[in-house]
Amino acid sequence: MYTYNSGLNSKGWAYTASLTYRWAGRGYVEGTFYNSLSYFLGIEKKFNDKHSLTLVTWGNPTERATQGAATDEAYWLTNNNHYNPYWGYQNGEKRSSRVVHDFAPTALLTWDWNINDHMKLTTSLSGRYSMYKGTKLNYNNSENPSPVYWKNMPSNLFDVWYNDPDNTEEALMQFNRAADRWRQGVGTQINFDRLYYSNEMANKTGRDAMYWMQAKHNNNLTFALSSNLKMDLSKFVTMTTGIQLATNKGMHYVTVHDLMGANTLYNINNYALDKYPLNDPVLGFRALYDMRMADPMTPLKEGDRINYDYNLYVNKASAWTAFKYTRGSLHGFIAARIGGTTMSRRGNMQNGMGQIRYDDGTMYDNSYGNSGTAKFLDGGFKLGSTVVLGKGHRANFGIGYETRAPQASTAFVSPEINNNFVDNLKNEKVFSTEVGYSFSSSWFKANINGYLSYMRDVTEWQNFYDDDARAFTYVSLTNVKKIHYGLEWGLKFKLTDALDLKALGTVSDAKYTENANACYMNSTEATMHTDIVYNKNMREGGTPLGVYSLALSYHSGGWFIDLIGNYYDRIYLSYSPTYRYGNTLDNRQASWEKNGKIGPQVYEIITEADGTQYKHVFPEAVAQAKGNGGFMLDLNIGKTIRIRRGGQLSINLMISNLLNNQKIVTGGYEQSRSNYSVSDNGVVGNDRVYKFDRNPFKYYAYGINGMLNVSYKF
């Protein structure tokens, strides 16, 4: 990294620039790499004491291979909690199936006008073009090539969780043989050579590509204009008011990244091939803006768009004002905002499944072209105060309420297919409050805060493979209600002039308070379904809800040493909505009754005194998967050395996870698949040996790792 700052010269010009390059031939996890350039340039012209103009631009073009999650079975068999199923060998060289290219050049122009000693106007114009592309291995009329696909796991041969009638001696022998192959590394990575060979054989018989690489693109072009006016209304009162106008065009599409030696690939819905004749127009994707691509039976080339291509347009306008009051021991503020948002979709590719049939028989065909425009008026307020109680004591309180427009990415039922908005789409409502206390003395400082946030009418969106439907599914969750609350604290004890003891922590919860409504469409049919999702008491995944930290810090004579112990607790994995659909619970109950009552019962029917009946769902049947918490020790040690003529040399060594604890789960997700098979007509069949509900995908914390940072300033 190199950074240059000119300072302000006699003509009112100032420059700052920074250039950084980061590279890793292999990351901490096998099969990953990193290649990134980062730049920053800032230019300021100070015209006089009242006016100045600043232009800054920055960007970070990056290419990186990503890590994939796996089940505990895969981690156990490979004896590696950082086993990565996303890579393999091709011609003896490592190749990753998941490579991300990300670049978002941004420019910001700011005009500062110091109108007088009590008034300042700041106006900014920004532009940003975000380009994101991520590759993924796809397959067609063949088995999933992922090493951690459930049919490739030893526990698909022998039920290691329940006393299954199919647990025979022969099944146990097959399990042990498969487990031994895993331990020996056979089939644990993607075999790219085999995939290329399969495509070569398909070419000889005139078949389509069996394996190919796709690239998902999510690009955004954003412009924003904002202006803020700050002025002192009196000795005690300051007002800040402003406006913002913003527009965003999101461009979402898939391209053929690599045909992997195949001759032909067509732009058709492979998930639905067993449901419709090959010449049925419902199977095709048609890029009507291109004569060649308008026919889905035209062979695709690398770089062609496939499956979906659509734009999302969002325009926002908002105005806000805030008053801040400071007098004596009382500090307070009140702020309010009002805004408007519009959003729409334009389909650039006609999807045969765009003929949507609702349960009442209504049909629409609107995958291509412009949708309607959804309009939202939102806003809110927030107020708070801080009271200085004297002798180092201070108390604060805040409360707020706002309505905010849903995200465009969640506003459509199935944006990859059609223009349909979610039914009854509305603003999200958020109520929040916080209260805190702080104390400060010469040897002790404390800061304790409690918070609560309640959200309702939230809309969420997911897409994944639905095993019951044997199709890719697009799910909108509406009428979502959530609550977040917790207690945070920070304590600092000054033991000596150079030695401090710090205690930090948070205990919190973030959960759904009511079951949500689901509206979903599967990739194999043109029908919109509705259901209830039993997701009450599901927690937000991907973050510990309990964190406790104790640190010992020494700072003296240019040296600093920090020894930090952290404990993480209550880590939930992202839950699967389809596992908790009402109709899925019925299927699971039917499987439980049909297959010898293996595993926990799903629900029981309760009859009230008046004869009404309802389902009592057992909590353990919809319990959310969790990950292990644990203790981690970190160490920072450094020295600052002053050199003659104003130079300064800094050396800093940071070591994370000093005790090499690799059993802490940092995130993951449940599998959205069922423990039973389903026939073409929806009848629940036999219980599978492999248990999806006992095999969530997880990520584990890195073991001991560190960074040595040396910098010289002159």
Structure in a nutshell:
The protein is mostly beta strands and 714 residues long.
* Main pleated-sheet profile: 6 strands, antiparallel, barrel
Q: In what order do the strands lie side by side in the largest sheet?
A: 3-4-9-10-8-5
Overall mean pLDDT stands at: 93
Terminal-residue CA separation: 14 Å
Strand-helix topology:
Layout: E1 2-5, E2 13-24, E3 34-46, E4 51-59, E5 62-65, H1 72-78, E6 87-90, E7 93-96, E8 99-103, E9 106-116, E10 119-139, H2 169-183, E11 190-191, H3 192-204, E12 211-232, E13 237-258, E14 285-286, E15 305-327, E16 330-347, E17 350-351, E18 355-357, E19 363-365, E20 369-370, E21 374-390, E22 393-404, H4 408-411, E23 428-440, E24 444-466, E25 471-494, E26 499-512, E27 516-522, E28 528-533, E29 544-556, E30 559-572, H5 582-594, E31 603-607, E32 613-617, E33 626-627, E34 630-643, E35 647-656, E36 665-669, E37 676-678, E38 684-687, E39 697-700, E40 705-713
Parallel strand pairs: 6-11
Antiparallel strand pairs: 1-2, 2-3, 3-4, 3-5, 4-9, 5-8, 6-7, 8-10, 9-10, 10-12, 12-13, 13-15, 14-17, 15-16, 16-20, 16-21, 18-19, 21-22, 22-23, 23-24, 24-25, 25-26, 25-27, 26-29, 27-28, 29-30, 30-33, 30-34, 31-32, 34-35, 35-40, 36-39, 37-38
